[in-house]
Specification:
By secondary structure, the chain is α/β, with parallel strands linked by helices. Helices cover 32% and strands 18% of the residues. Bound molecules: adenine.
Length: 232
């Protein structure tokens, strides 16, 4: 199997694999179910000071990453093939489980991680990367967002999760949040596990879980709940 392939353009290649070297992603990495290469953008700087950024034209705070340097770094990636080039930015389309599935179904991703105020707009005009955001907040750079997105996609790749770990039951798969979970002890601090879960009655358990999923979604995520009810 050739595996799901990730390239990351970054000025902090040492941030990878970071947390992706542990747990599910780490095991899958060892099994070569996915692979990554972090490319240091600084290596493609055109001057001996290795400059990757400059002051914004028109003035203002912060620094802007140079289009020519990132362009050279992107050109160095071998076999982009059908992989989407993803630029991580708060102005991008919000990442969600559906986007994760689409990425996981493909051959991998090439990430461009910006720092500072962002990157020169002309790079975006020329390469038209997918612009993706993790949410309405500002990170200090794209790297933590790339790590979160990779983590989310890897667990969707066939063969990565064991048989016991069903993806269909989990949050967002059917437009609902996942139902609550319980384990031993049967009574803890005077609170019992719901009776129905101990009944062994699979139909009743399913019905209860469904009700709970609906209740949690209605209470915690009215936005998801409206979409869900509109589709029923
Ligand atoms: N870079 C900075 N903030 C970001 C965000 N919210 N999502 C993705 N990339 C980012």
């Amino acid at each position: 199997m050739s595996g799901w392939k990730v390239d990351i353009l970054t000025i902090f290649p040492e941030m990878f694999p970071g947390p992706l070297g542990s747990s599910i992603a780490g095991k899958a990495l060892e099994r070569s179910l996915w692979s990554f290469e972090a490319t240091d953008i600084r290596k493609f700087a055109h001057d001996r000071h290795k400059t990757v950024d400059d002051t914004p034209c028109g003035g203002g705070p912060g620094m802007v990453m140079r289009a020519d340097v990132i362009d050279s770094a992107l050109s160095s990636i071998s076999e982009i093939g059908d992989r989407p080039v993803v630029y991580l930015t708060p102005r991008g389309k919000t990442f969600d489980q559906k986007m994760a599935r689409d990425f996981a179904d493909g051959p991998g991703i090439v990430f461009v991680c910006g720092r500072y105020e962002g990157i020169d707009e002309r790079f975006l005009d020329v390469h038209k990367p997918h612009q993706v955001s993790l949410g309405d907040f500002v990170l200090s750079g794209g790297e933590p967002a790339a790590i979160a997105i990779i983590d989310c996609c890897i667990r969707l790749i066939p063969g990565i999760l064991g048989d016991g770990e069903s993806l269909l039951e989990e949050s967002f798969e059917r437009g609902l949040l996942e139902y609550p979970h319980y384990t031993r002890p049967q009574v803890w601090r005077g609170r019992s596990v719901p009776e129905v879960l101990l009944s062994g009655h699979h139909k009743k358990i399913s019905a209860w879980r469904r009700e709970q999923s609906e209740r949690l979604t209605r209470n915690h995520r009215p936005d998801l709940w409206s979409t869900y009810t509109a589709q029923q």
